[in-house]
Amino acid sequence: AQSVAQPEDQVNVAEGNPLTVKCTYSVSGNPYLFWYVQYPNRGLQFLLKYITGDNLVKGSYGFEAEFNKSQTSFHLKKPSALVSDSALYFCAVRLPFAGGYNKLIFGAGTRLAVHP
Amino acid sequence: EAGVAQSPRYKIIEKRQSVAFWCNPISGHATLYWYQQILGQGPKLLIQFQNNGVVDDSQLPKDRFSAERLKGVDSTLKIQPAKLEDSAVYLCASSLQGEDNQPQHFGDGTRLSIL
User: Fold this and answer.
1) A12: which strand partners?
2) Whole-angstrom distance, CA of residue A13 vs CA of residue A16
């Protein structure tokens, strides 16, 4: 079955330290990969995507993600965490759908807590 | 540009009652999605429209859920009758085209509580 896994329910990091939020996927073919962030009582906001090309993708708010095909991973990173980065982060993969239209499969989410 | 608008933001009903949610996508976005997000889980796609046609409703519980997008713009999602397990946040999203690698833009959702 095609799926996305976020192995950590929560990640704790001190402000100013680097952060990593992990994501692995299990899909056939070459997936499109996305990261979204969700603040309390808000919808999801797009951070970045990997389609093809350079394995290191840069996105909004200083976030970046590294695509690793051999490890089927797409970990989210930031060199220096801010308290305002505290939120729920979702990894998602876009699958082909019969008829040509694609849909997103989301991981369960990882709560990032950045402490002052 | 204005974002995806959803209403109401919150709804509390008793089981077996009916409820409807409304979504207005970003202007010009042909593709509209409804997701169900249960507490502690990622969003799950319920239905996807391309203009006013359904392209994926494989995970929509059709015995109680229905959705329409009559003029290819606004959309409504209805639950009738509601069950306790329908308690969730219902998110609407839109994108320029379903086939492109364009990101989906989400509304703030409707939080539904079933008593």
Assistant:
1) A113
2) 9
DSSP state of B102: P
The residues pairing with A25 across neighbouring beta strands, listed in sequence order, are A4
Which whole number is the average pLDDT over A67-93? 96
Q: What's the sign of the alpha-carbon dihedral B1, A53, A36, B69? A: positive
Lookup result for tokens 């976020």: A6
How far is it, in rounded angstroms, from Cα B90 to Cα B37?
6
Q: What is the mean pLDDT of chain B?
A: 92
In the predicted model, what is the mean pLDDT of residues B89-115?
A: 88
Q: How far apart are the C-alpha atoms of A97 and A100, rounded to whole Å? A: 6
CA distance A12 to A85: 11
- From B81's Cα to the closest Cα of chain A, the distance in A is 25
Give chain B's contact residues with A (Cβ, < 8 Å). 4, 31, 33, 40-45, 48, 50, 55-56, 91, 93, 98-99, 101, 103-109, 111
Query: Over 50: is that where the pLDDT of A98 sits?
Result: no
Q: What pLDDT, in 10s, does the model give residues B53-65? A: 998 899 999 999 9
Q: Give the residue from A59, A48, A2, A46 showing the smallest Cα distance to B94.
A: A46
In sequence order, which ranges of A3-103 are alpha helices (DSSP H)? none
| Residue appearing with tokens 């990101």 | B103
Among A44, A103, A107, whose Cβ lies nearest the Cβ of B56? Answer: A103
As a whole number of angstroms, the distance between CA A108 and CA A82 comes to: 23
